[in-house]
Amino acid sequence: MADSMMSKAATMEIPISSNGDSRNLAEDDSLEQDLQQVMVSGPNLNETSIVSGGYGGTTEGIIPTSSIKDLRMKSRGVSIASSQIAACRLAHQSEDIPCIPGSNMHHGGSNSSMTAEEATRGVAVEKFDIVKKWGLNTYKCTKQMISERFGRGSRTVDLELEAQIEVLRETKRKYENVLHLARALTNHFYSMVQTQHALGDTFADLSQKSPELRDEFGYNAETQKLLCKNGETLLGAINFFVSSINTLVNKTMEDTLMTIKMYENARLEFDAYRADLEELNMGPRDAVTMARIEAAQQQYQIHKDKYERLRSDVSIKLKFLEENKVKVMHKQLLLFHNAISAYFAGNQQQLEQTLKQFNIKLKPPGADKPSWLEEQ
């Protein structure tokens, strides 16, 4: 009986209007009761399959429950897609842009991934090119250096400039020796001043404790204090002299020598590419070789321009360095001479006038000592 009732229920057509109401509101009570009975006593749709039969047919079809779930999921997807289309049309109603649900997301993700991949590939290619150029340049320069060492290769020489560079290096070595000796003099003289200061304090203390030798100890204490004061003034002049020589040697001359080093590297690169071009010109003149000769000619011209530019820079810096050296040393040697002469002559007034002439300001005693807060 259940099969017959199920067949009737499956083949029955109930027309529905657009507003969802049934066209035939009067239903047979017996049919309704039979359907209720089938739903109550029939199989569980969540656990079994649904059996349907055609009207008056003898065959039966089995529809799995999973198919119903798939249909429900598809219907939900259709509704979501419909809502996306409506939102897209509302947002682009003033523009002629086709609205495809999810297209912006997929295209945006694919575009961003492609952009990141292209950027990574571009960076890798750029780094590879840099390493390749560096390796080729290093190989050529090393080959040129070895050829020059063994006397097989030729090198570009500017005799006048090379002589000036050698004079500068020799001058720097001599000035470094002057700086070393001046620092040694400063250290020894500072120790002597400190000894005079301690000796003056000792004489002053003994003059208080030895009444019979009070005057003698007092004279010597005053002399040592005066010598200590003049020594501190001379130390100020010597320190200024040392500081100026140090700036000239380790900054001004060193800067020029750095430019000279860049010039020498440029000269080596220029000779390496020049030798490479000469070697190619001596070979056969086929299509491949002509292309290589053209590329070598371009590299040769680039390094030639770089070499000439740095050679000009070195010439200018050597000229300015010589003028600066003469000006600085003239002032510093005059200061050193006047300060030493005034100190050993005992002329305190002339010593102080020398410091004022060169705008040297002495630090008060204990100025170099850190404060109690800095010591914490």
From TrEMBL:
Gene Ontology CC annotation, any one: Golgi membrane
Molecular-function annotations in GO: phosphatidylinositol-4-phosphate binding; protein domain specific binding
Domain called AH: residue spans: 156-356
GO term, biological process aspect, one: intracellular protein transport
Pfam families: Arfaptin (PF06456)
InterPro entries xrefs: AH/BAR_dom_sf, AH_dom, Arfaptin_fam
Region described as Disordered: spans on this chain: 1-25
Gene3D superfamilies xref list: Arfaptin homology (AH) domain/BAR domain
Annotated keywords: Coiled coil, Golgi apparatus, Membrane, Phosphoprotein
Descriptive protein name: ADP-ribosylation factor interacting protein 2b
